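Input chain follows. Return structure tokens only.
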Amino acid sequence: MSGYRELDAKTLHAVLQPLNVIRLSCGNIRTRMGKYSTDDAEYLTAKLMRIEEQVVRATDLLQDLRKNNDDDASAEGA
């Protein structure tokens, strides 16, 4: 069973890493948008916010999964 949990931890890490890159990239794009027109900047900001919301949602879900796996492992070890 520990091999299964280890795979889960590796998989969770592998999925969380690109989500973090996406979140950071959204922030970087936002800082570069000063040269855009107000309408374009507002539109792009709204889209970036939507992307970031979904990244947070996915990250929270994966963090909960990680916590549940850790809790299960602790219960088995007790």
